[in-house]
Amino acid sequence: MIKLAWVLGFTAMLALPAGIASAAEPNAPAAPAAPPAAAAADTSAADKALHDTIAGLDTQVFDAFNRCTDPKQLKRYSDYFSSDVEFYHDIGGVSWTRESMIAQTRAGACGKIRRELIPGTVKVRAIKNYGALETGQHRFCQVKTGQCDGISDFLLIWRQQADHWEVGRVISYGHVDSKP
């Protein structure tokens, strides 16, 4: 499981967003006032469009990952990441470049495992003047047996450059074995 998690843990999710406080905290800041209805509608449309864009890109990235035994698909997968991508993995450590990340993927994942997104877990938040932050949960399954060995959280930092999106940072953590 640890070797699989090292290879697999592609991305990760951080804890609750800053500023969320429980009602039990007496000095917790008050929740922000709701925006005017027109602003909320505009924000919701923009948020939905961004969510749909990033969720679509996630699907494309991992479609290529799941078929990376084909050199064209491995290249397609690679092209979603900046050359200086940083990949932080709670079990496997850190990769500092796209080249090292892809070498690890080629050696440890291609033809051996596939990624499955846990439905309903993807959340997307805009990063002003930069791009977006995507979080969620996924599991990785053995290609030969179909057995899924656990679930982990992920976080991707997407950078938008004109009409092109690329991943600059990846965090994969919270690996939990699905076996009792």
How are the SSEs ordered, and which strands pair?
Elements lengths: L1 H7 L28 H30 L4 H8 L2 E9 L3 E3 L2 H11 L4 E5 L5 E5 L3 E12 L5 E14 L2 E14 L3
Structural overview:
With 180 residues, the protein is α+β, with helices and mostly antiparallel strands. It has four helices and seven strands; from the N terminus they run αααββαβββββ. The protein has helices at residues 2-8, 37-66, 71-78, 98-108, and strands at 81-89, 93-95, 113-117, 123-127, 131-142, 148-161, 164-177. Strands 1, 2, 3, 4, 5, 6 and 7 form a seven-stranded mixed β-sheet that branches. Strand 1 (81-89) and strand 2 (93-95) form a beta hairpin. The longest helix has 30 residues, at 37-66. The protein is globular, with a radius of gyration of 18 Å. The protein starts with a helix and ends with a strand. The relative contact order is 0.23. Mean pLDDT is 81; it is low at 1-32.
Q: Give the H and E element order.
A: HHHEEHEEEEE
| Residues in helices, as a percent range | 25-40%
Contiguous runs where pLDDT drops below 50 for at least 5 residues:
1-32
Structural class: alpha+beta
Mean pLDDT: 81
- Measured by DSSP, the beta-strand proportion falls in 25-35%
Main β-sheet: number of strands, strand sense, barrel status?
A: 7 strands, mixed
Q: What is the gyration radius calculated from CA atoms?
A: 18 Å
Q: How many distinct helices?
A: 4
Oligomer: single chain
Coarse shape = globular
The strand count comes to: 7
Distance between the termini: 13 Å
